[in-house]
Amino acid sequence: MEWTIDSTVELLNGEEMPRLGLGVWRAADGRETEDAVAAALRAGYRLIDTASIYKNEQSVGRAMRASGVPREKIFVTTKVWNDQQGYDATIKAFNASLKSLGTNYADLYLVHWPVVGKYKETYRAIEALYDQGLVRSIGVSNFNIHHLEDLMGSCRIKPMVNQAELHPLHTQKKLFAFCRKEGIQLQSWRPLMQGRLDLPLLAELAAKYGKTPAQIVLRWHLQLGVVTIPKSVREARIRENADLYDFRLEPEDIVRIDALNANHRFGADPDHVDF
Predict the structure, then answer these.
(1) What's the pLDDT tens digit per position in 114-149?
(2) N or C: which end of the chain has fewer CB within 10 A?
(3) 54 included as an active-site residue
(4) Which domains does the chain have, with CATH numbers?
(5) pTM of the prediction?
C-alpha cells in the first residue's frame, strides 16, 4: 500500500510513529511556534518534535490543545538537554517538560546528546519513566554506533529511536545499517541541509518528477525508511514539505542521491560534545 501523511512505522515496542513530522528547533517561543504547529496539524502532520533546549514546549502544547486534534492522535517528542543529564536531573527535566507541554505523557523521550559519563544514567532514568507509563517510547539522539553499543551493553530496554543528522551530504550508511540490524528506528534531523538544496542533481530530479528539490530530498528519506522532521515556520512550506505522496523515486535515482554523500555535517559531531 502506498504511503500517506498518516503512514507510520512500528517501533520495537509496537508503538506507531508517524513517518513525517514537524521539527521546531529555532522556532521562536510564542506565536511563531504556535502558528507553525497549528499549520502542521491542519495539514495532517501528527508528529511534533521539540526539546527542552528549544524553549518552546509551552507553545507546542498550546497549539496542540487549540487544534482540536485529540491528544492521542498526536505523537510528541521531547528531549533532555546536556546540562540536565544524570538520573535525578533527568527525572526533574522530564517533569518540567510535561508541565510545559501541558500533557500527562510524552510519546517519545530522547537523550539529546551522548554526554560522556552521563548518558547511561540519563537513559536509566528514561527507562524508569517508561516503566511508569509516563512516556510511550524511548530512545536517543545523536548517538554514533559505539555510543549505541556501549549503551546497549548495560540498558534494560533497547532504544527504540535514534535521531541523527542525516541528509544527502551525510548519508550515515554505517549507522543506518547498524540501526536497521538492531531494530532501532533512525530519524533524521536537519534533513534539508539548512536549505542547501542548490545541487545540480536535485534540480534535475525536481524537473523530472515535477517536484521541488526539498520534496525530492524528503521523499528520498521516506523511501529509505528514515523518519524525518523538516523544520519550517511558514505554512506554505509546511504544506509543501508534506506533498510527498503522489510520486515515487526510481531506484536508480535513490542511488544517485546516495552518491552525493560527502560526510558533511552541518551540526556538531557527537564524538565531541562539549556544550
Answers:
(1) 999 999 999 999 999 999 999 999 999 999 999 999
(2) N
(3) yes
(4) 18-258 (3.20.20.100)
(5) 0.96
Identify the residue whose cell numbers are 518540567. Answer: 96
Residue whose C-alpha is closest to residue 128's, from 97, 147, 155: 155
The DSSP annotation for 196-252 comes to ----HHHHHHHHHHTS-HHHHHHHHHHHHT-EE--B-S-HHHHHHHT--SS----HH
pLDDT band at 40 (very low <50, low <70, confident <90, very high): very high
Reading the block at residue 194, the C-alpha cell is 539548512
Give 61: exposed, middle or buried? Use CB within 10 Å, 0-12, 13-18, 19+.
Answer: buried
- The active-site residue out of 45, 54, 109, 123 is 54
DSSP letters, 3-20, are: --TT-EEE-TTS-EEESB
